[in-house]
Write a structure and sequence with these properties.
Elements: H1 2-30, E1 34-36, H2 39-42, E2 70-73, E3 82-85, E4 93-99, E5 102-105, H3 107-110, E6 118-124, E7 133-138, H4 146-149, E8 152-160, E9 163-168, H5 170-173, E10 181-187, E11 196-201, H6 215-218, E12 226-230, E13 242-244, H7 246-249, E14 257-263, E15 272-277, E16 284-288, E17 294-296, H8 298-301, E18 305-306, E19 312-315, E20 324-327, H9 335-341, H10 347-355, E21 361-362, E22 366-370, E23 376-378, H11 380-383, E24 391-397, E25 406-411, H12 420-429, H13 435-448, E26 457-463, E27 466-469, H14 471-474, E28 481-488, E29 497-503, E30 508-512, E31 520-527, E32 539-544, E33 547-552, E34 556-557, E35 561-562, E36 567-572, E37 576-583, E38 589-596, E39 599-604, E40 625-627, E41 661-664, E42 673-676, E43 685-690, E44 693-698, E45 706-712, E46 721-726, E47 741-745, E48 751-754, E49 763-770, E50 779-786, E51 798-802, E52 811-813, H15 815-818, E53 827-834, E54 843-851, E55 854-859, E56 862-865, H16 867-870, E57 877-878, E58 881-885, E59 894-898, E60 914-919, E61 928-935, E62 938-941, H17 945-951, H18 955-958, ...
Parallel strand pairs: 18-21, 31-39, 41-76
Antiparallel strand pairs: 1-30, 2-3, 3-4, 4-5, 6-7, 7-8, 8-9, 10-11, 11-12, 12-13, 14-15, 15-16, 16-17, 19-20, 20-22, 22-23, 24-25, 25-26, 26-27, 28-29, 29-30, 31-36, 32-33, 32-37, 34-35, 37-38, 40-72, 41-42, 42-43, 43-44, 45-46, 46-47, 47-48, 49-50, 50-51, 51-52, 53-54, 54-55, 54-57, 55-56, ...
Keywords: Signal
InterPro entries: Crtac1, FG-GAP, Integrin_alpha_N, UnbV_ASPIC
Protein name: Similar to ASPIC and UnbV protein containing FG-GAP repeats
Amino acid sequence: MLVGSKIRLFCRVLFTFAALVLISCADAKKDALFRSIAASESGLTFENRLQLRDSLTILDFEYMYNGAGVAIADFDLDGLQDIYFTGNMVSNRLYRNLGGFKFEDITEAANVGSANWSNGVAIVDINQDGYPDIYVCRAGPRGAKDEDMANLLFVNNGMENGKLFFTEEAQKWGLADTSYSVQSVFFDYDGDGDLDMYLLNNALVDFNRNTARPKDKADKVPSVDKLYRNDSGKKTEGKPVFTDVSLESGILIGGYGLGVEVCDINEDGWPDVYVSNDFLTDDLLYINQKDGSFKNEIASYFKHLTFNGMGNDIADIDNDGNMDVVVLDMLPPDNKRWKLTMMGNNYDQFRTRLDYGYQPQYIRNTLQLNNGNGSFSEVGQLAGIDATEWSWSALFADFDQDGLNDLCITNGYRQDITNLDFMVYGDRVLTMGTEEANRKKRIEELNKLPGIKETNYFFKNTGNLSFEDQSEEVGFDSPTYSNGMAYADLDNDGDLDLVINNIDDPAGLYENTISSEMNRYIRFKFKGPQKNKQALGSQVEVFYDDSIQKKYFTPYRGYLSTVEQALHFGVGQLKTLDSVKVIWPDGKMQKLENISTNQELVLAYEDAEETKPNSRVPASGTWFRSVDSIGLDRLHVENDFVDFKVQALLPHMHSRNGPGLAVADSNGDGLEDLYMGGARGQAGVLMLQEKGSFTSYEFEETEHEDMGALFFDVDNDGDQDLYVVSGGSSFPVGDKAYQDRLYENDGSGNFTKRGALPNMPVSGSVAAAADYDKDGDLDLFIGGRVRPGEYPMAPESFLLQNNSVPGKLKFTKDTQSISGVFKDLGMVTSALWTDFNNDNWPDLIVTGEFMAIRFFRNDKGQFSEITEQTGLSHTHGWWNSIVSGDFDNDGDTDYILGNLGLNSKFKASAKEPLCIYASDYDKNGQIDPVMCHYVDGKNYVAHSRNDLIDQINAMRSRFRTFSDYAEATFEESFLKEEIENAHVVKSETFANSYLENLGSGKFRLSELSRPAQIAPMYGMMVGDYNGDRNLDVLAVGNFYGGEVFSGRYDASIGWLFLGDGSGSFGLADVSQSGFFVEGDAKSLVGLNAAGKELVVVGRNNEGLKTFYRPMKNRMYIPKPNDVYALMTFENGDKQKVEIHYGGGYLSSTSRNIAIPEAAVSVKIMDGNGRETEILDTL
């Protein structure tokens, strides 16, 4: 009886729990942004069903599963948006909107069906009679007849006998193209007022489209897009209205297009064309030359691209008034699918593609952020939208009406043909047998493949370059094979609903349930000029609360589809807009003021003003201006050593980390000079300043890879000697080429190498000087960077005591670096002598790869590590650099630290660190650095199976299939004793960060703003660059030495962080700062020349980049033993400025101190504790 009662009680509890779960799920769906409406309710019964058969498979027709499109327009002008679907093996269908999300199939009556393979669909009023017409792109498998692939133009005749009726007239209009078309876009490219047409093509070819060939040959493939000019109104003499003008217009470059969109990218008032190309072919950005022609300028705007370019969209994601670009690819987001589809890194192949002229391309979605000056920074990984499986359509729109454009993405593929087990098995079984037998075997295996049936993605734009995956929350919870997608207000309630074309499932219909009282909207439709009544190419800007939203009017977006012909803005709770500016396609403008929201306005061209807006002219920098022709134009030439050939599992190379820069008055003429280190095979060079220009003098040695360099007076004879760190990874461990060099200055800028250093053939990074033992001379810390071929084992770092006397230079190793706290420091990248506890003894902070921010307190010449006491023991990262400054004006020293940044595939936290377990797993005498990371709470090996086998051949037998490997966690991949015996390094943060000094030996680490995270941060300088008496930070970054899948980190164009005096920073716009630095920027220094401050950037494998700004401040030239300045301002604020030898990343900048006009006291503290007021001496 007791047992039965317990069972009944358990059942009641279980039933109650289940009911609560069901109620919770029901409530969640009820509150979802989108309500999915079944075909049985809506009457929208279209289904793009494919008829799979052995005679026609993906093996024969590679576009078998590319799907079809959807277009939305009010075809019958009844005020409701109707829907047209294209089909591949089924007829296209037209559904009339009856209201209330009820639809009626009127295809046959309207005469708009199609019996053959259709792709994209564009809606255009081809004859400007006010009725939307339909243009359909068609294709077909190999052997298809031209007439079956001819594109179709259904001209809308309006209502006849109460019914909508179309006539097919493509031949009449000159648009019955048979080029294997994918999609079309209509726009006025030549400024004559009528609508022309760009046709996106993707023809079948008989060769591997991923095989690299010289670009001059690769661009001349049969698959080339076309441009048709509209010649209506001209004397056509009975000829078709549209004329193919591709050749004379410059549309000449071959490619395999899947996405196309029109936008005025460079804001010169003329429409440009972006094409996303599949396979190896680069995407295209055809910039309108304003003379009827286009020029592909994609490499001038974008630094890297997607590999398999799919659908795209262009919109302003951050409300800065600049148009940003998303292009989709097919990167899986989960560990299993990633390992089932990724072959592995092949650096030689990547390098060959670059040598042939291709741009860098990577398998992931890209989000190109418009910097407003003609450049873009790719931030897809930072934004979190880079991996969405085999994706097709991307649409930006403000679906929740909060004022920010969200992102919808469709995905899925009918058969998983990229499964590597299938691909490798096929390669093996097809080596024998007849062609017929092999085909049969291949098809048998093909038919066993599952589909990639996934839920579509909805990313809510949360601002600050962040998108949050809310797919399930908004109602995207059903797996589909989805392709074309379009949005429209289908029920006239002011928000955007969605329609999606699915393979082998009914089309998706999603009602947007947002309340217009919760978040409001404003919508615009257009009555354009006579030859462009749709007003395609118009722009609308809305202004409110010091904010701007901007949209460009083209309905051809995403993939194969056309959205509603209206512009929709979400505005949150705002009830009134300050103003609205309309720029019509011909440049005329219209302005509206005090506009109420929650309404739809029809904008009329007849209300436009004659005034044309000026084309955007890049603003001249307020603070920095680029300068050349002064002799600072040296080119750093990197060698071609490839680290991955030594250790296949490296996350990045260590042979491409220079150049270092150092500044000093080397010849005693009162002018500051510059040293730039050389790569292996290139000499370092000294650039001497002479009357504002520079003359170069090369050093003799070329066998070293120069890293950090430092000018300082070694022997107290009054001149600046030079220390150069040798580094890189192109020599074996212990090679003599890693020995550092010390050059003695004769006082006139002539340098002689001296044998004053102990033997230390270690690949190093940084040199920093301070009199840490207070014996009157400058000692050194030398950071060890890497053990080549033995990554990530820690190299030696050195604390060098200066025992020099005049006439004899000599350094010896301090025992603390041999057996004390500096032993096995790690892979050091930067070091800073700094008095972080204000006891007037120089302490040391050291940063590095897979290192915590390590603090070493100087106890009168003896060092103790106090990292744990500072609260920073869990700060392991890939730190690159550190600089100091009193950023909160509280009289102590804070720090800025450069890290990898967050725009990367690598993710880490203290709870889920990214680790490398290094050991000689296969006992072949080589260190195998196996990286692991967390995915959905589980720890997995981070490498592809092929890469792991390249490094550890024994893994081939441990994981015989890709599937076996994809399922295994890290702990299941290695034996327990292998893991226990491995050398482990970890990273817990990758964020570029601000380190605040809290006093009492405590520090607080916080991430810099999201724009600061777009790239690795390297060289940094501190100063008051905008004259507000608060310290700012100038920084450069990027890194081109990543492994092939991660690719180049190239999003930085330089940063100017404006401090507010409280420890917070705002990012200056590049048009305001003028500080624009692209490329693989590493070092950053300042020096004085002819009354100006020069800022010089060292870039790997590129030339120096130099800027100047007028010097408005007085300048103090420190004495060799000066350590900091304490400035007091008229309002009582105090600011401490340390005076360093070395800092940032490989950057030994000028030690001169700028004294602001507002300073009322400047006290200089030297290394002996002597304080001197110097303001009256300036």
